[in-house]
Amino acid sequence: MGFLKFLVWTGCAVGLGVFLATADIDGRSPLEYVQRQWKRHVQPSQVDRQVDRVKDGLREAIDEAKVTVDRTTKQQAKATPRERITNEDRAAIDRIIAQKK
What we know:
Blueprint lengths: L1 H21 L7 H12 L4 H34 L7 H14 L1
């Protein structure tokens, strides 16, 4: 009985394979439709791969730029403290300069 089941299932599988390879649906075989969908969804095209590479490159460049800007601003802040000169201080400096002339 097991051997008979094996022969029936093998025959069905072979018949299905022949049908998928030779049947004509709208000018194409079902196997061609499956291959087309496989290429479209599972194996992305060259353009899609290039777009992904460009996106990855841009993300890396943006991340590197952020790190560089953060590093330079932190170094600059530590190296030179910012001076805060008020309008009164400016006026006093202007008077001193005017007296020297």
